Amino acid sequence: MTTLAVSSVLLVAVLLKRKLPIGWLTRFGAHLALSAMAIYALNYSGWITGLYIPLNPATIGAVTLLGLPGIALVAGLQWTLMT
């Protein structure tokens, strides 16, 4: 828990120190929303039968960072751990 708190504070410090433009925050938010919609669409479309990918910060974060291969990663991990 301490490691998470320290790393979060240091991440915020780095982001504030670099003075990034506001556009990166908008782009990141759009990627988060699109990732959540992609997982939602995959769950309710029936493309993968018998597999449900939960909408939580870990799965949305993996899909945000990795894109479509992130969905394959989460689905593969879930399938491996379920069988």
UniProtKB/TrEMBL annotation:
Keyword Transmembrane: yes
Record Pfam families: BofA
Keyword Transmembrane (UniProt): yes
Residue intervals passing through the bilayer: 28-53, 60-81
Keyword terms, alphabetized: Membrane, Transmembrane, Transmembrane helix
Protein name listed in UniProt: Pro-sigmaK processing inhibitor BofA
